[in-house]
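[Q] Does anyone have a clean structure-token version of this?
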Amino acid sequence: MILLDPDARPVIGHRGNRAHAPENTLPALLEAVAIGVDALEFDVQVTRDGTLVLLHDRTLDRTTDGTGPLAARAYAELQAVDAGARFTPNGRDFPWRGRGVRVPRFDDVIEALPRDLPLIIELKTPLATQALSAAIARHGLRDRVLVAGFDPASTMPLRGGAFALGASRPDVARLLLPSLLRRRVARPWFRALCIPPSHWGIPVPIASIVRATRVHDVVTHVWTVNDPGHAQRLWRQGVHGIISDDPAQILAARRGM
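[A] Here you go.
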């Protein structure tokens, strides 16, 4: 799988084609596919009735015209929520408002996407862990997914299973000092790192982390990178994948290297 190939430079659509369509919705994901991304990244949570859906925040307020926690809604109730209502490319226009964009079910997304497209799936809550594990088995996705989660409680129950996992936030934190000191790190349990260029305004030592973990065949994907020059610099530092809101720009940057 390209997401785990240390010699590949995949371009990954962050929540789809997020710069141009409402994040974590089917239109955004399909736009990214049409552009030619190597993989997609999206977030999953569960509704009150246990339906696995795509949504980043725990509440509906930022990305939809609904309010309140997702966990308080049954899936059927989400059909009245406009998931394109708040998307704006410029702060003035709302081109997806009223066009019937909904918070999508995981099952519907998988059925709509190409059968061989690799996926980075971000668990936003431990409540979604078992539902996601069951869905991966149901759809036969184990060879094309990388499952990650900031909260170690989300991925802990999945360790030793049939599909690849990414590091949690504490796992990344434990790498910082030995990486900076050029000390050898122990073989980690995870197959990949999905890390930002900076955290709370402090630069993350990406090149050092890549150097320390690459000997263990751990790949590093960086989010969110929308500047083509930045993407090229990261690739030259040994980063594997670039997760971008605007993947067309990053695909062009890769062609230019």
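[Q] Thanks! Anything notable?
[A] The chain has a mean pLDDT of 94.
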